[in-house]
Specification:
The protein is mainly α and about 110 residues long. It has helices at about 5-25, 25-35, 40-60, 60-85, 90-110. The protein is about 85% helix and about 0% strand.
Amino acid sequence: MNLLIVCVLFSSLSFFAYAYSYFKAPKMKEEFKRFGLEKLGFTVIVLEVLGALGLLVGLKFHLILLISSLGLSLLMLAGVLVRIKIKDTIWISLPAFFYMVLNGFVFCKAMNFF
């Protein structure tokens, strides 16, 4: 299994787990309230699930991998910016930054930048 596939599987499974926890753990919805984004919480989760599905489908259809990885990377960039805006610590912001970089790597790898 090559590095691209490992990254895609890790990212997609992580986003599926996050989406699942949004519906099962009340704390996840409270995080969106803390961000001032409670009305966008469901939309963000839908985008994450679509992105995670897209990553998996993208293993077969290259264009979908490019779109999904770029979309998730941009979504996580927005997450990092929100955390900066509300003055979260670097430690708390690290997961959003990590997934932004991870999906950026998948995008770049899929584009054959390296």
